[in-house]
């Protein structure tokens, strides 16, 4: 059995053999040209050396650092384009030639950071010994100059960077000092007061004053309660009565009201209330009472807001204090005033104490904030001092910085020994490389196609996805004179019938008795779906099953002529009427029990027909009348027509073919079908290299050699 990789390579070789042969020819031709080249002229190699050199004494840390960094020059840096171009201009040759023939070896740094060697070797090859010497000499001088320029440039960059940064650092230091100064102006007294204890003494003194005032208020409260009991008045009432009693106008108005009331009392016995004299007296009384009320408001103040006044009767009652009670009332008012004054003082002391306590509680935060500001000033000052010291050190290093490289070996020119080239060896190597490259090109082109090359590749893909393999159909001949039709097995004596019967039985075994309508499709065209559908129908009919093939691939023309069925030229004019008519069902003449509904395609609006009620009734009628219904539909990669037909079917058969089926497309299609549970029965491998018994095939084709199709011819007929 031939290994799969050999099969894949043979298939690719058959397809790309001329490209591989061309690659082989190009390599052999190139080796031939190389072998016939004349002996090259003599070559001279100039060797020179540079060493790393440090000054014996350095008075600055920056100078030492710059010189130490100069020991790590890379090869790419030493032979950069400006150096090569300067040397090329000096010796009057092309820079590209110098770059191609130049070799520079630079020592590497070890794990400890030290150089493995202190020598830089320079080699240059040329046809002219004098020119080789000039190039190496110029290169070494340019590298020494480059090293000095690099060290000087590095030092100048340090100085420029420090000078650029220094004003900003100075500004930051000044700002930090200013913030500390402003903070001390505001918060330093409180901090010092807390630190020396004066703030705590102030709080204690305030608390003592509060206690003294509270004691005084307690004594005044006792006196006020005593006077209130003796007078039967509150402090407000005492104030009102004292003020009213002391006013002469109120006293006069009270006297006039009393006189009027006395007259009314005397006249009430002889006169009616409505008598003019009585009415006049009532008006006088009312007027006096109004004046009394207004005067009381004026005396008390605030129009009764400070001390609410009673009615006229109350005013008359509160304004008749005797001298002794009036004195007591004045004392009560004085005590109340004193108490309110002390209460306000106590409130001020409490507020002041609260503020002092808040200030005292914030002292730790203020101390921390000041410490932070002091620290910021210290940090800024340290950075400033460091930069000043670094700047002074860098300026000192200006006089010390020199080149790190020095010439330790002047150029030495030697002639290279040339060896004659063997023509047979060159041709042999070229032939061998040609075989490898030609074979590799063929294999690469075959791999880039992305298709399955052998049936074994398809088997492995199915095994990975746990998809059943239903059958492997070989390359079969076309039993017709027209070579553009699909190969079908019409003869019951054909040696291929056994393979087709195995295909049919596997479909029945996998699907079971419930699977009656089978949909046959593929991922793309030319994979053999129509061939598989036709031959599956033939095998089913040969097994005694009443079978019908319904073509629903409306995007291409029917190939029913392969079954000796003539196309209806008018079917495409009215496809709905065609599918709805019983005349669309045709009997295959050469196969008993086999019927077919040819496709009226190609038709543009295929989806409307596939979703029509006519096609649905056709499918339902076929399910009732036939034992096996095979639906040939459009490939999944071209449209969704197969998904529109799928609801009418019981299972799906996918067709794959080596050299035609794309690996990625088939994998994606199988994954989607399995995940969506669309009833995938399995896969058929069409066009497989299946061996047929020689005696059987010879007897079958002894009279039909003109119809036999070879594998390389199969692509022209196996279109669907």
General description of the model:
By secondary structure, the protein is of the alpha/beta class. Among the domains are: 65 residues, no CATH class; 253 residues, P-loop containing nucleotide triphosphate hydrolases (Rossmann fold, 3-Layer(aba) Sandwich), CATH 3.40.50.300. 58% of the residues lie in helices and 10% in strands. It contains 22 helices and 12 strands. The strands form 2 sheets. It has an 8-stranded mixed sheet with strand order 5-12-11-6-10-7-9-8, sandwiched between helices. A 4-stranded antiparallel sheet has the order 2-3-1-4. Strand 11, helix 21 and strand 12 form a beta-alpha-beta unit. Helix 6 packs antiparallel against helix 12, helix 8 crosses helix 12 and helix 9 packs antiparallel against helix 10. The longest helix is centred in the middle third of the chain and has 75 residues. The relative contact order is 0.11.
Widest beta sheet: strand line-up? 5-12-11-6-10-7-9-8
Return Rg in Å. Answer: 60 Å
What's the total number of strands?
12
Regions with little confidence, pLDDT below 50 for 5+ residues: 302-306, 694-719
Average pLDDT across residues? 77
The major β-sheet equals:
8 strands, mixed
CATH superfamily of the domain at 455-707: P-loop containing nucleotide triphosphate hydrolases
**Terminal-residue CA separation:** 30 Å
Specify the number of helices.
22
Named at the architecture level, the CATH assignment of the domain at 455-707 is 3-Layer(aba) Sandwich
CATH hierarchy, class of the domain at 455-707: Alpha Beta
Q: Which percent range describes the beta-strand content?
A: 5-15%
* Principal-axis shape: flat
CATH topology of the domain at 455-707: Rossmann fold
Helix content percent band: 55-70%
What structural class do the secondary elements suggest? Answer: alpha/beta
């Amino acid at each position: 059995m031939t290994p799969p990789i050999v099969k894949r390579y043979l298939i690719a070789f058959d397809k790309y053999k001329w490209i591989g042969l061309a690659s082989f020819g190009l390599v052999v031709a190139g080796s031939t040209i190389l072998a016939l080249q004349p002996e090259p002229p003599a070559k001279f190699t100039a060797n020179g050396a540079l060493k790393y050199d440090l000054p014996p004494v350095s008075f600055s840390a920056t100078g030492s650092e710059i010189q130490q960094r100069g020991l790590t020059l890379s090869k790419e840096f030493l032979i950069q384009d400006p150096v090569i171009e300067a040397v090329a201009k000096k010796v009057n040759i092309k820079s590209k030639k110098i770059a191609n023939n130049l070799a520079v070896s630079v020592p590497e740094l070890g794990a400890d950071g030290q150089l493995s060697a202190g020598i830089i070797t320079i080699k240059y090859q040329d046809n002219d010994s004098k020119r080789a010497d000039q190039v190496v000499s110029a290169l070494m001088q340019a590298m020494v100059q480059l090293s000095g320029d690099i060290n000087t440039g590095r030092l100048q960059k340090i100085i420029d960077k420090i000078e650029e940064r220094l004003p900003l650092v100075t500004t930051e230091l000044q700002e930090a000092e200013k913030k500390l100064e402003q903070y001390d102006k505001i918060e330093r007294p409180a901090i010092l007061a807390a630190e020396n204890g004066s703030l705590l003494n102030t709080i204690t003194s305030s608390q003592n004053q509060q206690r003294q005032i509270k004691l005084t208020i307690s004594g005044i409260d006792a006196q006020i309660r005593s006077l209130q009991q003796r007078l039967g008045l509150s402090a407000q009432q005492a104030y009102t009565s004292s003020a009213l009693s002391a006013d002469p106008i109120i006293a006069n108005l009270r006297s006039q009201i009393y006189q009027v009331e006395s007259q009314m009392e005397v006249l009430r016995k002889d006169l009616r209330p409505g008598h003019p004299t009585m009415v006049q007296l009532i008006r006088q009384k009312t007027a006096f009472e109004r004046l009394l009320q207004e005067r009381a408001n004026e005396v008390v103040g605030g129009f009764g807001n400070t001390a609410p006044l009673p009615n006229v009767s109350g005013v008359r009652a509160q304004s008749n204090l005797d001298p002794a009670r009036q004195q007591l009332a004045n004392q009560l008012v004085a005590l109340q005033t004193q108490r309110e004054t002390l209460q306000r003082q106590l409130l001020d002391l409490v507020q002041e104490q609260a503020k002092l306590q808040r200030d005292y509680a914030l002292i730790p935060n203020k101390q921390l904030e000041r410490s932070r500001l002091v620290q910021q000033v210290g940090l800024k000052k340290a950075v400033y001092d460091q930069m000043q010291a670094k700047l002074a050190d860098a300026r000192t290093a200006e006089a010390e910085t020199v080149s790190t490289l020095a010439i330790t070996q002047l150029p030495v020119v030697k002639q290279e020994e040339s060896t004659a080239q063997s023509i047979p060896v060159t041709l042999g190597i070229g032939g061998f490389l040609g075989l490898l490259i030609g074979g590799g090109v063929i294999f690469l082109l075959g791999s880039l196609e992305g298709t399955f090359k052998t049936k074994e590749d398809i088997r492995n893909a199915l095994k990975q996805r746990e998809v059943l393999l239903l059958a492997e159909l070989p390359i079969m001949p076309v039993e017709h004179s027209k070579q553009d039709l699909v190969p079908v097995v019409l003869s019951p004596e054909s040696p291929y019938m056994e393979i087709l019967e195995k295909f049919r039985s596997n479909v029945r075994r996998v699907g079971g008795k419930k699977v009656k309508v089978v949909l046959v499709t593929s991922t793309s065209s030319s994979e053999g779906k129509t061939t598989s559908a036709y031959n599956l129908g033939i095998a089913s009919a040969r097994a005694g099953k009443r079978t019908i093939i319904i073509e629903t691939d409306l995007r291409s023309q029917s190939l029913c002529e392969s079954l000796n069925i003539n196309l209806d030229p008018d079917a495409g004019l009215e496809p709905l009427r065609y599918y709805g008519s019983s005349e669309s069902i045709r009997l295959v003449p050469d196969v008993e029990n086999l019927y077919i509904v040819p496709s009226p395609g190609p038709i543009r609006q295929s989806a409307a027909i596939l979703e029509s009620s006519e096609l649905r009734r056709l499918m339902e009628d076929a399910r009732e009348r036939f034992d096996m219904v095979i639906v040939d539909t459009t490939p999944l990669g071209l449209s969704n027509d197969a998904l529109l037909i799928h609801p009418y079917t019981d299972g799906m058969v996918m067709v794959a073919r080596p050299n035609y089926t794309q690996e990625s497309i088939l994998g994606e299609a199988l994954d989607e079908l399995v995940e969506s549970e669309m009833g995938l029965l399995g896969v058929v491998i069409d066009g497989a290299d299946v061996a047929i018994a020689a005696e059987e095939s010879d007897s079958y084709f002894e009279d039909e050699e003109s119809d036999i199709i070879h594998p390389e011819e199969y692509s022209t007929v196996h279109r669907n």
